[in-house]
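Entry 14. Ran structure prediction on the chain below.
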Amino acid sequence: MSKRVGLIIVFGLLFLAVSAQETWNYVEVDKKSYELYQQKNWAEIIKYSKEARNHGIDFFYLQARTGIAYYNLKLYRKSTKWFLKAYENDQSFDWLQEYLYYSLVFGGRTAEALKYAKDFTPALQQKINYAPAKISRIAFEGGYSFNPDFDKIREVSYQEQLIADDDYGEAYFLENYHFESFDLSHQLAPGVSLSHNFTYLGMNKEEQVYWGAKNEFPIKVNQFQYFINPLFVLGNKWYVSPSASIVWGNSELILGNYDPNTFYLYNLKYSDFIFSTSTWSHFGNFSPGAEINLANISDVSFTQMSAWITYYPFSKPNFYITPRVYFRNDKAESLGYNTFEISGGVQLGPVHLSGKYLNGDMRNFVESAGYVVSNFPGSSDQKIMGSLYFPVGKKYQLVFRYINQNIKENYQVYTSGVKSNSLEYNYVKHTLTAGISWNF
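Output, structure tokens:
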């Protein structure tokens, strides 16, 4: 009797094993996943396809259905992974090409999407308005920056605090400035684009000179910047983006002559340059990157490096956060930690909000691939920026920004032409900007 029971148990286990094996085969998985697809049960497709792969079963339609499930749940960056797997197996389907294209675009990877689009069918290329080379964006932006503490700091008797007496003291107090900026971006070839920017900045300062007595002179600074930035998509998802930025300007300065209370006009011309190269890639909901800057700003040559990682917790660009760390070295200091940055953004309907906070030693500092350059006298250790974007019609977008940055500068005292003393003063610079872009 015991033998019979043992045989029944053995055959029962074999039957269950065979039944389980028969359940997890290509035909059953294809049938079940298709039923779930027809039912639009996206969450169950994702769960079922994962179980099937754990049993060693994977094929074109299962990959495509997994991608469609993630796509319909608006988890675009996760959907891209499965569309790419399916696309590697078969590139002939219009519907798969379209899903792949929009998953990349909605996942914040438009440059890759355009690179794949060169191999799409003519009908789909026409549908998505594809062109191998075209102007992609034109933008104008202007801003006004002011120092609300201007009257306060200019009234301080620095020469008395430093007991300048017969020495020579000077300082340059920022009052305000305005800037106008023009951007042009165009696609040169699939996976290759080029961006240009030209900016003019008109700055008003007060030059204060103590030379026998306290003297005040209004001065104006004219500054220009040209920025060029190509972008290359190498392979499937490796981005490389070098850039060059040239900053030049001029200012009329009033300097003390040999005798106290006598002055002469000096025309100052200056130029700075920044060369940058950044690279990044995409891995699911993470996008790590790194950058190196070689710069000469205010006659100081230095190297600056940074690394960051962008995290998309909801698998799409409607919410992201990016911590970034900067390192720097120059002739005076070896390579070391310099500044910490945290930035992020959120999409609320048609409105996009982004923000950035920096904390560290921002003296002759470079951010945003060499596009934003801190080449003002003195230094800063904190910067806060908020931006608001919203569309106007189908192709236009408005942007408004507010920037708050603290500045530290020095009143300098010279004895016999040699710097002998100084006194630090602080203020907060407020900047308001507005702009419009036309996206083609």
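The chain has two domains: 25-127, 136-439. Will compare against last week's run tomorrow.
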